[in-house]
Each structure stands twice: as structure tokens, then as C-alpha cells.
Write a structure and sequence with these properties.
The complex is a heterodimer. By secondary structure, chain A is of the alpha/beta class. Chain A has 12 helices and 14 strands. Chain A has helices spanning about 1-20, 35-55, 75-85, 105-115, 145-160, 175-190, 205-215, 225-240, 255-260, 280-290, 300-315, 325-330, and strands spanning about 25-30, 65-70, 95, 115-120, 135-140, 165-170, 190-200, 220-225, 245-250, 265-270, 335, 345-350, 355-365, 370-380. Chain B has a two-stranded antiparallel sheet with strand order 1-2. The chains are: A alpha/beta, B mainly alpha. The interface of A and B includes residues 202, 203, 207 and 241 of A.
């Protein structure tokens, strides 16, 4: 019996030693399940980038070990994952890439352990905006209220006639709150809100929702929801004969989807560059994706590479040996060069764990040139609240 | 007019899905809670055959349909035949386990990205005029497929030897077996047909709206329609689907779109309070369950 115990201890020693010789970060993400397409590419891309970094000597001469646990977007699994990552893997940074329902248990565990919690690819909680919660950080592209400000700003600038605007959202709290906010904002901008459609997740047929929207005769529609709800409503509207203009959020798959839909009046607004830009960093992304044989198209990976750059910068500013307190100090004063993947650097301060400035671009399909084109270049909004 | 078209399309979706629930329940008294997953598997079958038979869309659709039918037979042969003679609860639990297994396997094999089988087939979803209303080409295909399926099933169950055997096995399996009807063959056929019709629903929904993991949930959303109509009646499934979809579409239009998720279950609760065996269900059969 004693022999067996000693052999287990001896077998585990190299693992413990390896763990202690690396920066260990832990991710709880929706890697499988119905919402996985929104989150899994972010985690996979971030992991691929950090592995690529390890191949080039790691950070400060030490490798970065990423422990990924699947929570299937279930709060109970997220709680178990957070406990395991903190107690067993002794991570210095926790990451969440999952539905907002998983936030509360992870925040509770992170607070108990005093470990920074970074939301990558997941909706930024309001606690990351100024004045920020000391432990919560976020780099995800979309930002509540700011997105509607940017989108309606674009509509106002590009409207050919008085704007009669319709709204569409999925029946989830964050999307409904955003669309309610947008409705109020539209009035202050001199637009006329004509209809608001909230569809359940998922609907077998979006035509009944689109029918009501079409009957209100909007010349613009703003939709802020998961992609399926945004685009199915648009497609149903078009099949009903609606010929207005539709602007919606650019999720991970937006670039590919613009090429699939091929509609000149379908706009997407977002904060990440498209592969169409063909930046030097895109060549690097393509090479890493090919080497690690990622399952997703390269155009889905920008958000994950942004997260990889952020983790790299935070750990680079963390002196060895790392502790959660040192990582937290580094994250509280961070400026990350995103190499053109966004309109400017991502900057976190002690009070602002979202970003000090958010940059937006708008794209559409150009039927004349048969490719995705920019409808508006980077426009910055300062994040002050 | 547009509302009527919307009701008919939604009712067709529900009816085509319900068909599988009813066929299996009617013949073997088993409630298949893996129907949503089998439906999604049928859709992935089309995605796979569309890639395999590039440039031959009709062949791809036929292959996917055949595949769905065979999957149903295999499910019965590999798993459900062991449940014959066991309690109904054991069989239902087996279908839940099957559903979980299929969901995991589909993620492993096909990943989590949205797929577009219609594009892979080289077809587009055009918008067609029906009087003053409009319907998508896939929506029209759904309506026609549902009408054909139900027509063929009614004819099959009433006019063919195997159909009569299926009805006999559903009414009294012991007596049917004593009269020389091979129950395993009948049950396997029911699973094959149910998976074929469910798979067809999955294929058409995937052609209309893309193929992703949420298709399973849509499979479950049709379940109240089957219960409203009566779980052992094909005619009931048709009428139940029409009632539920009419309530859904009209409430979306005239009251609040948020009610669309709740309304099938409100109709179901009302039906359970007034007539628990459904509009066309058999009273004594449900009492046994």
C-alpha cells in the first residue's frame, strides 16, 4: 500500500513541477452545447496563440499553460470548473468564455480566492465599466449601449430620408435591455421607432416576427442579438419583400456571412478588423491556424487572438514567480498593442476594466465589386461612464 | 393572407416533427425523447451527402432520406429492441440516453459551426408569391412534404399489409404476436419511418434557417402539438399542430411576440385540463400510461 502511494506521489511530481514552472491560466468556456459556436473559437484561437508563444520561448522565458474546462454554458458546471481551476490547478488568472448565466458562480469563486477574472468572448459585465470592480476585466468586442450609440450614429449619418426604425432582439435579458436602450436613443436622435420584435431562442420560423416588423414599414432596422436571431429575421424580411436597410452586430462569423448573404443593404457594425484588411497580423493568424489545425475558419479567430495578446501582455508585466496579486496589478495598468485587429490599443486602468476607447467599423457586401467592403472606417467612442 | 401562410408553414413544421413522436408511440407506446437529436442527425446526413454528391442535389436528398430511415432501423436493432417487454419508463430513459449520446457524437463529428445544406446543394431559397402573401421555396417544400407524408402514411396504415400489422401491434401487441405478426419487424419499421419523417423535418428546417445545435430544441417545441392532438393519432398531430401554430402566430402578431415561446404550453395545459388524452387521442390507452 505504502509502495503504491509513493509511486503515485513520484508520478505526480513532474506534473506539479511543470505547473510551478509555468504561468498557469484557467478557462471555463462553452466549448460544447448550442451556444458553443459563439465561444469555442475564441478559446481555441487564444490557446493556439499562447502555444505558438510557448514555441518561441514563452513569456519572460516561462511557458504559459492554459487549462480549458467545458461548462456547456451551465452555471453549475462553471462553478465546479472555477473551483477546480483555483484549488487544483492554482491558476493565477481565471477566464470566462460562456453565457452570462455562468458569471455569478465564477465571480463568487474568483472573489473568494482573490484571483482576477477576465471575460474573453463573453459579454462584458457592467462591473468592468468605470468604476470597475477590482477583479473583473473584459476585452470582448461588443459593449452594451456603446454599440447602439455607434450603430444609430451610422444610421443617422447615412440615412437618405427621415428614419423610421425597427428593432429586433432575441428574448434574452442583455439583448432586450440593449434594444430598449436603442429605442430611447433613437428618439433623442430624431428618429421614429416604429416596431420592436423580440423572438425566442430559437424559433422554428422567423417569418411571423418579420411579418409584424415589415407591416410597420421601417426604412432601417437595428438588431443586437446572437447571430442566428439577427440574420434569420433579416432573411425572413427580405423574403417578405421588405427592401429597407438592416444594420446588425458583427459577430465572429460576420465576414463569412456577408459573403453568403450578398445583400448590399445588409450592414454589420463591429470593433474587430476583417481578414479582408489583409494585415501582417492576419498572415500570422493564418499560419498559426494552419499549424494547429483549428476547426474554425480564420475569420472567426480575431476575438481569440485579441484575448491571446491581452493575456500575453498581462503576464509579460508580471514578474516571476507569478501570483494572482501580481497579475492583478499588471492588469490594472495595461496597454495592449492589438496590431491593427482593432482601431487602437486596448487600455485598462484601475477604474476602467473594459477599455478607455472603443473603435467601430461598418461593413457591407458590395454587389458591384462582389466582395466585402467598409461602409465606414474606424470611429472612436470614449468610454467614460 | 400572410398570417394564414405563416400559420400553415409553422403548422407544417410542427406536424412533420410530430409525425415521428406519434408513429413510435402509437405502435410501441414508447415516448421517444431522442426525436430532436434524430431530427438533427437527419439534417447532418443531408449536409454530409450534399458534400459527397456535389452537383447531384436530388441524389443527395434521396441518399439522406434513405440514411435517416436506416438510422431509425439501426437505433431499434441496436438499442430499443432490448426494451421490448421492459417498463415504458425504462424505454423512455433509454431514448434520453440515446439523445445525449447523439448530441455529443454530432459535435465531435460535425463541430459547432452553422452549416448551410441548401447552399451546398446548389439551390437557393427564393421568395414566391401566394396571392398577396409570400412564402419561401423551402417553406412551400415543407408544406408539400408534410401533405405528402401524411397522405402516404394514411394510405400505408390503412391499405397495406405492413400498415395493418403496425396498427394491430399498436392496438394489442400480445394478440398480434399470437397471430404471427413479428413485433420486432413492425417496431423497427416504425422507428425507421419516424426517423425518416423527423430527419426530413430537420433537413427542411436546416435548408431554411441553417443547421446548428438549436435544432434539437425545435424538435422539443413541437412536442406540445403532438400532445394537444393526441399522442396516438396522426390526424390529431395534424390538428394539434394547426391549433398550436395558429395560437402562436396570432399572438405574435396581435399581442406580444414574447408569448410565442409560452403559448404552445398554455394550449397544452388547457387541453390537459379539459381533455387529457388530446383532441383525437384514445382515452383508455392514455389511462394505462
Amino acid at each position: 500500500m505504502r509502495k503504491t502511494l509513493w509511486s503515485i506521489v513520484l508520478a505526480l511530481l513532474p506534473i506539479v513541477a511543470a505547473a510551478q514552472d509555468a504561468y498557469v491560466i484557467g478557462v471555463s468556456g462553452a466549448m460544447t452545447g448550442p451556444v458553443a459556436p459563439n465561444y469555442a473559437p475564441v478559446v481555441e484561437a487564444m490557446k493556439a496563440y499562447l502555444e505558438h508563444l510557448n514555441g518561441r520561448g514563452g513569456v519572460n522565458g516561462k511557458p504559459v499553460r492554459v487549462v480549458v474546462l467545458d461548462d456547456q454554458a451551465q452555471p453549475s458546471r462553471a462553478a465546479t470548473n472555477a473551483k477546480q481551476l483555483l484549488a487544483q490547478d492554482k491558476v493565477v488568472m481565471l477566464l470566462n468564455a460562456s453565457l452570462s448565466s455562468t458569471y455569478a458562480p465564477m465571480i463568487a469563486e474568483a472573489k473568494r480566492a482573490g484571483v482576477p477574472l477576465y471575460f474573453a468572448g463573453a459579454v462584458c459585465p457592467k462591473e468592468t465599466y468605470p468604476p470597475a470592480d477590482p477583479l473583473q476585466f473584459c476585452s470582448t468586442a461588443f459593449g452594451a449601449n456603446l454599440d447602439s450609440q455607434a450603430a444609430l450614429g451610422f444610421v443617422k449619418a447615412h440615412a437618405r430620408e427621415p428614419v423610421k426604425i425597427g428593432f429586433q432582439a432575441m428574448a434574452i435579458p442583455i439583448a432586450r435591455a440593449e434594444i430598449d436602450y436603442a429605442e430611447g436613443l433613437a428618439k433623442t436622435l430624431g428618429m421614429t421607432p416604429v416596431e420592436k420584435q423580440i423572438s425566442p431562442p430559437p424559433a422554428p420560423d422567423y417569418t411571423p416576427f418579420a411579418t409584424k416588423l415589415k407591416e410597420a414599414e421601417p426604412n432601417w432596422v437595428w438588431s443586437w442579438s446572437p447571430w442566428v436571431s439577427q440574420v434569420r429575421t433579416f432573411e425572413a424580411l427580405r423574403r417578405l419583400g421588405w427592401n429597407g436597410r438592416y444594420i446588425t452586430w458583427a459577430h465572429l462569423n460576420a465576414e463569412d456571412e456577408l459573403a453568403r448573404i450578398r445583400d448590399g443593404e445588409f450592414y454589420v457594425i463591429g470593433t474587430n478588423a476583417f481578414m479582408e484588411d489583409n494585415l501582417p497580423v492576419h498572415a500570422e493568424m493564418r499560419a498559426i491556424a494552419a499549424r494547429t489545425k483549428l476547426d474554425y475558419p480564420v475569420s472567426y479567430l480575431t476575438e481569440g487572438f485579441v484575448a491571446g495578446f491581452v493575456v500575453e501582455a498581462a503576464l509579460r508585466n508580471t514578474a516571476w514567480p507569478p501570483t494572482p496579486q501580481k497579475v492583478l496589478a499588471a492588469m490594472n495598468n495595461l496597454k495592449v498593442d492589438l496590431k491593427g485587429l482593432r482601431g487602437g490599443p486596448l487600455e485598462w486602468t484601475k477604474d476602467n476594466h473594459f477599455r478607455t476607447r472603443q473603435y467601430y467599423r461598418v461593413w457591407r457586401w458590395d454587389p458591384a465589386s462582389n466582395r466585402v467592403v467598409r461602409a465606414q472606417d474606424w470611429q472612436a467612442i470614449d468610454v467614460k461612464r | 393572407m400572410q398570417l394564414a401562410v405563416n400559420i400553415v408553414v409553422l403548422a407544417s413544421i410542427y406536424a412533420l416533427i410530430c409525425c415521428g413522436y406519434v408513429l413510435i408511440y402509437r405502435v410501441s407506446r414508447v415516448l421517444s425523447l431522442a426525436h430532436g437529436e434524430l431530427m438533427m442527425l437527419g439534417a447532418y446526413g443531408l449536409y454530409a451527402t450534399a458534400s459527397l454528391f456535389g452537383g447531384h442535389p436530388v441524389l443527395a436528398v434521396a441518399a439522406a432520406g434513405t440514411l435517416a430511415f436506416c438510422v431509425g432501423i439501426v437505433v431499434y436493432a441496436a438499442l430499443m429492441w432490448r426494451m421490448t417487454g421492459e417498463s415504458v419508463l425504462a424505454a423512455v430513459l433509454a431514448t434520453i440516453a440515446l439523445g445525449i449520446l447523439l448530441r455529443g457524437a454530432m459535435i465531435l463529428v460535425f463541430g459547432t459551426q452553422t452549416q448551410y445544406p441548401l447552399r451546398d446543394l446548389g439551390w437557393s431559397n427564393a421568395s414566391l408569391a401566394v396571392g398577396s402573401a409570400r412564402i419561401s421555396a423551402v417553406g412551400l417544400a415543407l408544406v408539400l412534404a408534410t401533405a405528402l407524408t401524411y397522405g402516404a402514411l394514411f394510405a400505408f396504415l390503412r391499405g397495406t399489409r405492413w400498415g395493418i400489422r403496425m396498427r394491430a401491434a399498436g392496438q394489442n401487441p400480445l394478440l398480434a404476436a399470437q397471430r404471427g405478426i413479428g413485433l420486432h419487424g413492425v417496431y423497427a419499421l416504425a422507428w425507421g419511418l419516424a426517423t425518416f419523417t423527423g430527419g426530413m423535418a430537420g433537413m427542411l428546417i436546416a435548408c431554411d434557417a441553417g443547421l446548428e445545435g438549436t435544432l434539437v430544441v425545435i424538435g422539443l417545441k413541437a412536442f406540445p402539438a403532438a400532445l394537444v392532438g393526441g399522442l396516438d393519432s396522426l390526424a390529431g398531430a395534424l390538428v394539434g399542430s394547426l391549433v398550436v401554430s395558429a395560437a402562436e402566430v396570432l399572438l405574435i402578431h396581435y399581442v406580444d411576440p414574447l408569448l410565442s415561446d409560452v403559448v404552445p404550453f398554455v394550449v397544452l395545459l388547457a387541453m390537459l385540463a379539459v381533455r387529457p388524452w388530446g383532441l383525437f387521442g384514445t382515452r383508455e390507452e392514455l389511462d394505462r400510461v
